[in-house]
Amino acid sequence: MSTAPSTTKDGTPQPAAPAPGPRGPWAPLRPLVLRLHFYAGVLVAPFLLVAAVTGFLYAGAFQAEKLVYAHEMTVPVGDVELPMSEQVAAARKAHPEGTVTAVRPSPQEDATTRVLLSGVEGVGATHSLAVFVDPYTGEVRGALEQYGSTGALPLRTWIDEFHRDLRLGENGRLYSELAASWLWVIAGGGVALWFSRRRALRKVRGTGGRRRTLGLHGTVGVWAAAGFFFLSATGLTWSQYAGAHIDELRTSLGQSTPAVSAAGGGEHAGHDAAAGDGGDGEHGVGIDRILAAARAEGLGDPVEIVPPADTESAYVVRQVQRSWPTKQDAVAVDPATGEVTDVLRFEEFPVLAKLTRWGIDLHTGVLFGLVNQIALMALALALVLLILWGYRMWWQRGRGSAFGRPIPRGAWAQVPPYVLVPLMAAIAVLGYFLPLLGIPLAVFLAVDVVLGEIAYRRGRRASV
Prior knowledge:
Layout: H1 26-68, H2 70-73, H3 84-94, E1 99-104, E2 113-118, E3 127-133, E4 140-147, H4 154-165, H5 173-196, H6 209-237, H7 242-252, H8 269-272, H9 287-296, E5 303-306, E6 315-319, E7 330-333, E8 340-344, H10 351-364, H11 369-397, H12 417-433, H13 435-463
Antiparallel strand pairs: 1-2, 2-3, 3-4, 5-6, 6-7, 7-8
Helix pairs in contact: 1-4, 1-5, 1-11, 5-6, 6-10, 6-11, 12-13
């Protein structure tokens, strides 16, 4: 005896439910994951969309920067480079304002030297004025505001700040931390849902409407998921709240990033180092001997020379190459004698410190250069498409209604206690370390429970 297939309210035939199989822990969890994926996707997607678009632009800004600022960054190759002291003097003659805080010698034959100044009017406290000097002629090619350890110039700095905090300062950083906190949850839920579906429902070819959109959304999401997990994890390492917890954990494990000691430049540092110091970066024996001492310790280009912070401190010369292979060695040099007082090698960094360094550099597109940047742009584009397809599915689910049809409630009630209790404990731990995941999730659960209780009581009254 056959029965007619069930239909929806508008008369559309509804596919027959698959034959029931053995119920494992995933069966009661699936509706819960589906509901969380749906609402997290709808509510967090605008933040992710901003992060994806600005991340796409930031990855492309490395190459754009070379074109926009070619005059300042590059020079014709000459025969012999001038002493570093003469290059710094040329920069100071053109820009006597402020104080020299660092010098980045020309890292390659056709590149300029950068002399970085702080305390310049109109330049932010966390930024520097970079004066670009031709290392062969001493000609000042220009001056631009610079930000960060990668030497971002105005174009990349603007995009970077918008990506990080919407240019709203510390409060604006909450947006990017919220996006990073939820990206891995949404991606992980999507992957679990995709592989739990019947194989026939995962096909894209020959389908149309919402099913085709779902197929595209799922296929691209699965392929890009590993990249999203990586972006989420590395983005959290320097976020405001989760980043602080990660730093505390690394410190407690003895895995924090070490620094070369610049304290105590020598017994004569307090006298000789002060001689000739007029905010020009020249202390004691002078910057040329300092650079020579660092070269003798094996510090090849690119390097940054940081003058002593006070009369009791040493020069710090550190490598600043973030691309592969990473060069992050550093030395401290006594300004009075030109002798190296401390050496720090990247190979001596703790494992987690190295992984953090590589993770951040991969996230920002510098570890593998152009290939790295193209991969980031592809991930950002994939995220934009997934968000657009997700909203389209929401629209198609509601058949054109204003907000689409929501996922039914009741998922929590279907989860057995032996699964629900450990799950809630894991969520509580995650919520502590990732507050911008835990707090919104707790609010969502509370609202969901309250609305569910209201709906339940209304249903009971209606049935009386």
